[in-house]
């Protein structure tokens, strides 16, 4: 169990990279990048986890305790997700432009330079 | 490079990464223990500023400067996408026509969910310092709400409810006000983005000083940014026609 969360994180990063490598479609490559990035979310949350730890949110009615999971890595995961979303948007916009100028979204066919 | 060669290079790199990652994991503190140094610093700091949601406290108080950077990333990505997706040579904006079939149940559910989603979005933003949520999450919910109109099958009503310039200004001004709120702290002598507002009482709506203010500002920026971003893609997919192109055969 100790290794499991970290293994999932590493596997997601590698499988996402594999998806980018094998992709024949830039949209698929973009989605694969999101998969690879989600590995970093799993890693961050695994680093901050504590057995039986509560959420680091003391909603009205609850008493603050120090037995909570690490809030700092959760905040970093949030940052990560926002960056991932913006990168995805930019890559998809680039894909649209590439389709317009080269009439293909297959990265293997994008080898010639065009002035 | 052939696909096979590329796969080989990747295999070598991935194996190396996997081995190093395994070593790194083996050297890490065990999973799930109660030993969290950052937690032990962040929780008391959040309680000191009477912030119930420690994650919000980290984002908008302890590491607020990073969140300003994040806002700038969001703003730049919106600008970048808008620049990339503006109509190019030969493309014309075409009037949208009603096309396609949308089932009545989809339309009904979309209209029913629109006010509910807006309310949830506002709630998530407003209580970001008390309950899970905050400006980023609530902003995304708000941006989604507007696009339920598109699911309801009326792109025209989406365009009417979405005077894009308003959202453009919302995005820009709220990102700027984040920085201005930071400057207030500087002017008071406590430092950039310091928590200088009255802290209020713990676990009540008016607490946590600048955290809820920054949450609202961020919520507006994210909602505006999301709508502007999606509008660029909608404009490409629905609002423009391309000139007839010659398929290149090479």
Automatic annotation (TrEMBL), chain A:
Membrane topology according to the record: Multi-pass membrane protein
Transmembrane segments: 6-23, 30-51, 71-94
Name of one Pfam family that matches: Oxidored_q2
Cited InterPro entries: CPA3_antiporter_subunitC, NUOK/Mnh_C1-like
Species of provenance: Micromonospora sonchi
Protein name per UniProt: Dehydrogenase
Stated family: Belongs to the CPA3 antiporters (TC 2.A.63) subunit C family.
Keywords: Cell membrane, Membrane, Transmembrane, Transmembrane helix
Source species taxonomy: Bacteria, Bacillati, Actinomycetota, Actinomycetes, Micromonosporales
GO terms for cellular component: plasma membrane
Subcellular compartments: Cell membrane
Automatic annotation (TrEMBL), chain B:
Predominant place of localization: membrane
Na+/H+ antiporter MnhB subunit-related protein domain mapped to chain residues: 108-225
Pfam families: MnhB
Top-level division of the source organism's lineage: Bacteria
GO CC terms in record: plasma membrane
Transmembrane regions: 72-88, 108-128, 134-152, 164-193, 213-238
Membrane-topology annotation of the record: Multi-pass membrane protein
Localization terms from the record: Cell membrane
Keywords assigned by UniProt, alphabetized: Cell membrane, Membrane, Transmembrane, Transmembrane helix
Matching InterPro entries: CPA3_antiporter_subunitB, MnhB
Family: Belongs to the CPA3 antiporters (TC 2.A.63) subunit B family.
PANTHER family: NA(+)/H(+) ANTIPORTER SUBUNIT B, NA(+)_H(+) ANTIPORTER SUBUNIT B
Protein name, per record: Na+/H+ antiporter MnhB subunit-related protein domain-containing protein
Organism: Micromonospora sonchi
